[in-house]
Amino acid sequence: MELFTPDFGLVFWMFIAFAVLFLVLAKWGWPVILKNMDRRADTIDKGVEYAQQAKQQLDNAREEARKYMEEAQARQAEMLRDVAKMRTQMIEEAKRQASEESQKMIEAAKVSIEQSRKEAELQFRNEVSKFSIEIAEKMVRTQMKDNAAQVKLVDKLLDEIEKN
């Protein structure tokens, strides 16, 4: 039972040791501990503040990135519209040029055909004239075998020349 009921001297010295320890801790220990706790609290507060600032910056950066993405998508859509418009214009221009070129070729072919037709017509006329002259010559020879017919023809031709 002595363990449960200590002597007065033991209690006294324990109280003195406790008081000395309390005074030493109150003088040098607690201020350092409280100062470190305050510094730690300040560090934690600053960390929370930095985290909030970082979160705010991240949100701002995300918003800015979203704006840039929307702007880039708008530019891309505009560029695609411009490209489609240019493609349509190029196709129309190519069609127009092809049409003009085919029209020129058709006109050239018409001119060539007309020239060929005129040449054929001229050649045909020359051939017909040649045959006509040959036929007329043969007829005149057969009809002009006698001198009287020749004199009559020459007089007739001279009369026609004088009239004109």
Commentary on this structure:
This protein is mostly helical and 164 residues long. It has one domain. Helix content is 93%, strand content 0%. The protein contains two helices and no strands. The protein is rod-shaped, with a radius of gyration of 64 Å. It starts with 7 loop residues before the first helix and ends with a helix. The mean pLDDT is 89.
What is the element layout, followed by pairings?
Elements: H1 8-143, H2 147-163
Which key features would you list for this structure?
mainly alpha, 164 residues
Q: In short, what is this structure?
A:
This protein has 164 residues and is mainly α. It contains two helices and no strands.
What would the principal axes of the Cα set say about the shape? rod-shaped
Number of domains: 1
* Biggest sheet statistics: none
Low-confidence stretches: none
Query: What proportion of the residues is helical, as a percent range?
Result: over 70%
The tally of beta strands, per DSSP, is 0
Radius of gyration: 64 Å
Overall mean pLDDT stands at 89
- Going by helix content, strand content and strand pairing, the class is mainly alpha
In percent, how much strand structure appears in the residues? under 5%
DSSP helical segment count: 2
> Could you give the distance between the termini?
181 Å
H/E element sequence: HH
